[in-house]
Amino acid sequence: MTIEKFVAEVFGTAVLVLLGDGVVAGALLLKSKSFGAQHIEITIAWAFAVFCGVVVSAPISNAHLNPAVTLADAVSGSIPWDWVPGYWAAEMLGGIIGAAIVAIYYWDHFKATEDPATKLAVFSTGPNIRNYPLNFFSEFVGTFVLVFVILSFAHNGSASGLAALGALPVALLVLVIGCSLGGTTGYAINPARDLGPRIAHFLIPIPGKGGSDWAYSWVPVLGPLAGGAVAALTYQAFFTNFADKVIPH
Question: Which CATH class is domain 3-245?
């Protein structure tokens, strides 16, 4: 993996998290002008946060922005396995940087908000009903859909990662996943989007922040990684050969 790809992934993921966590901060933190924004507003903003991250990084790194997407690309043979650690490191660093900027940007609003759980929700996901097997299943299915659709677009093209769809289609894909499957766990579907900001929450001395809920932190990491890998294997097993054998009408 080249340094150019590494830097592109850092910037792309940082932009994604800055804008995504930023809309959550505006909706949840007291004395924000956008306080009280509803799920659909947050979901739309997250979708276009992904759009912006893809625009930033796609020409250089193919806009993975997500360790689950990187793993799926390695499983499907789109990238060499020795690129995976570099992509993962860049994505995680970008997530930490983006979340740190949100913490500074909304610092006074974090101070004005008393509830520690609300402050954590700006940075990382959590289930409304804590049931680890079903929470894992939610993240698995959401990421499976994300990766499976990406691979469906990419099969006859040259791009991999989120760039396979293009910026607007991937935004719409994330939007529909958020609307349809986001009601259980908040649809992390991306370990860097959750673990990176969770690390930032742990490290930054936000007033009255409380704990970082490490007991749950494995779910939005392992669920998406498993979902991405299984999606890649499933597509290879059942669709790659089928698509190759299709006879044009």
Answer: mainly alpha
